[in-house]
Amino acid sequence: MKILYFTRGQSPHDLRFMQALSTSGHSAAVLCLEDAGSKAWPQGIELLHWPKPAAKFSWVSAPALARSFRRVVEDYQPDVIHAGPIQRTAFIAALAGVKPLLSMSWGSDILMDTRKGLIWEYVTHYTLKRTTVLAADCETVVKAARGYGFSGPARVFPWGVDLDHFKPGKAGGLRKQFGWEKNVVFLCNRTMEPLYGVDVVANAFAQAAVRNADLRLMLFGKGSQESTIHTVFEKAGILDRVYFGGFAGLDELPGIYRSVDYYVSASHSDGSSVSLMEALACSVPALLSDIPSNREWLEEGKEGWYFSDDDTASLAARILAAGENTKKNEMSAAARKLAEKRADWKKNFAVLLTAYEEAALLARKVNS
Questions:
Q1: 85 φ, ψ to 5°?
Q2: Rounded distance, CA 326 to CA 324, Å?
Q3: Do 329 and 350 belong together in one domain?
Q4: What are phi and psi of 46, to 5 degrees?
Q5: Rounded-to-integer distance, Cα 267 and Cα 366, Å
Q6: Same domain, 136 and 267
Q7: With 80 as the cut, is the pLDDT of residue 37 above it?
């Protein structure tokens, strides 16, 4: 099977998909809406180019981009076009009228971008009505897509993680480095932007730390709220209990997860969070905001707990309860089992390959 993978640029997720496709036994090529032609792709992946330099995406340039995209498809003759996110690459493919089209939601495109205005709603509806098969990382996204008119088959697969890379092991060196071996350590490594609620984590931890001096927090990531978050701890007088680690690379992450007792995410919207799956794979129980997509993961009290979204007091109470938790070992074991069941990238990717076959079969039926 020949697969044309049409994406915005080259993110770590794009590379992971293309690496898997390169060893899948299928032929695959990638086309980027934005300039990623100078970057390396996995061996065996063909890099396609626009007939002429692609215009910068806008609603006005979309028809011209669609015409150019149709020429790329005519030249490459793929069996399936895989395009996402919905309102840019998948929209261009839908506008070009090419089939079969597997549209892949990246989560926020359907859950958040549709709120930007009527044109975003219209484009989402237009694209999904012309999508052969939808791929999504959680049922919450599929449900939202149905609300925008999608009536075809959907395949759900959390994008997953490498369970050989993210796995339990000896406690990471950060605990020893900071002298936190006997403390209860929490981790939040979401981007410090309003959507991800790191400010909620900061305020909740400040409230909890006043009541329990044994609590510690590691924050990894950057963003526009970093200085504000730093001020929260400074005003509470607990800067010595918090570590700002900046960006962490893939090789660093397992050691970071092994250095903590609990993972925390207060995100206000999400698909299946990769950082959550990484934490679970490393046997780290989670404290999660009770948004619909998160609710698809934990069993309350088994692999972690939920707290009310955007509720500082609710999260502070959960942090304090975790600090006194006597079943941490059982929860850690349950977290790893959950990751093995639902977050294994090697197993989950097979769902996408099945979706390709389904899209191609549906197209053949229509044409026969």
A1: -75, 175
A2: 6
A3: no
A4: -85, 130
A5: 42
A6: no
A7: no
Q: How many residues does the chain have?
A: 368
Q: What is the pLDDT of residues 219-251, one digit of tens each?
A: 999 999 999 999 999 999 999 999 999 999 999
Task: Say how far apart CA 21 and CA 349 lie, in whole Å.
Answer: 9
Number of C-beta neighbours around residue 66 at 10 A? 17
Q: Token digits for 119? A: 């044109």
How confident is the model at residue 355, as a pLDDT?
96
How does pLDDT run across 63-117, given as a tens digit for each residue? 999 999 999 999 999 999 999 999 999 999 999 999 999 999 999 999 999 999 9
User: What is the C-alpha separation between 313 and 311, in angstroms, rounded?
Assistant: 6
Edge-to-edge strands, sheet with 27-32: 46-47, 27-32, 2-7, 80-83, 101-104, 133-136, 154-156
Q: Which tokens is 208 given?
A: 């909890």
- DSSP H or E run through 30: strand 27-32
Domain of residue 192: give its range: 173-342
CATH number for the domain harbouring residue 118: 3.40.50.2000
- For residue 283, give the nearest of 253, 301, 257 by alpha carbon: 257
Q: Distance (Å, rounded) from C-alpha 77 to C-alpha 361?
A: 16
The predicted model gives 138-146 an average pLDDT of: 96
